[in-house]
Amino acid sequence: MKWVALGLAVVLVFVALFFLGTRLPSLFGSSGSTPAAAATTTTATPTETPSPTPTPTTPPVETVAAIGPVAPGEHKWNALLGGECLEPYTTPWAEKFAVVDCATAHAAQMVFTAPVTSDPAAAYPGEAEIAAEISLWCSAPGVLDSAAAGAYSDLQVQGTYPVSAEQWAEGERNYYCFISRSTGEALTGTLAVAQPAT
After folding, report:
1. Containing H/E element for 96?
2. Which domain holds residue 12?
3. pTM to 2 decimals?
4. Do the domain assignments include residue 19?
5. Could you tell me the strand order of the sheet in which 96-100 lies?
6. Claim to verify: residue 98 and residue 21 sit in the same structural domain
7. How does pLDDT run across 80-118, given as a tens digit for each residue?
8. Measured between alpha carbons, how far is 142 from 131 in angstroms, rounded to an integer?
């Protein structure tokens, strides 16, 4: 019984010391600027974390503006809607692409396009910011048909996007995802995920 009373007294002393320690600054008239500043900094950090992260970090796959593919023939790069098979193909940065039927052998496919951001008033996030995210966007679920892609062991993903504030101001807001084979061999069939009709 004596030990229980002693143990209870020790616990009460620790509780009293803790309480006194938390109230000490206010007892001496201190405004507690150091703890408040620390609390403000701690509170501000989570609030500020999303701010530097630009809108394009995770554009949703559902934001497809139009359903492709466009008909076979030659088309300007920004006329592609997603799903177009391309032959020939040397770079995703070409000004024009020759679209072919996906049932024929082709060098590449532009499998997906979507806006960098869904906010039409958003400022240009910068080329470096978009470049840092493009591989994630182009490998996101819903971009590539993983079952069809499983037939190839040498697929490579490349993406294009607005490279300047001038392009952005002119309305070029989409990124484009291209699939080709690193060996240069042809693809057959489509690797694009079928998009629901709008």
Report:
1. strand 96-100
2. 2-48
3. 0.65
4. yes
5. 73-76, 96-100, 84-86, 108-115, 174-181, 155-160
6. no
7. 999 999 999 999 999 999 999 999 999 999 999 999 998
8. 20
